[in-house]
Amino acid sequence: MIAEWDALKALLESVGLAGRVRDAPTDDKGEVVRSDFVVLYGAGPDGEGDGRYGTVPRPDSDAEYEFCVRAVSDAPAGVRLLMEKVLLTVGRKPTIAGRRADPVTIAFEPAKVDNSVSPPLHFQDAWLTFTSRRG
Length: 135
Fold this sequence. Notes:
Layout: H1 2-17, E1 21-22, E2 37-40, E3 47-48, E4 63-73, H2 76-87, E5 99-101, E6 105-108, E7 112-114, E8 121-134
Parallel strand pairs: 1-2
Antiparallel strand pairs: 2-4, 3-4, 4-8, 5-8, 6-8, 7-8
């Protein structure tokens, strides 16, 4: 799980988001970060298996991952610019040592505003999906 997260983070950074990929929307003190960035949330595999009937999945089995990426900005235009970069990952394969990855696919959710903080933050979620296979 960690290798897949690291590989997707590296892929996001390679498409113009270097220094803007975080694993939380808050800093070390728990304060809301005020800049344009994306949060790459961690995730376990959605499913495991090797396509063989009757086999028990193992930790190194093929696994499908779906990671949520949230673009955050003080302005709607900032969210659009960040998501334009995220879109550049579609069709690319994350590099995972000892494994093969399928190309990334993406599904976007509508943009929203978080009014619980002042000034409000704009954000949009996208779901990046790929399969990590045995090497």
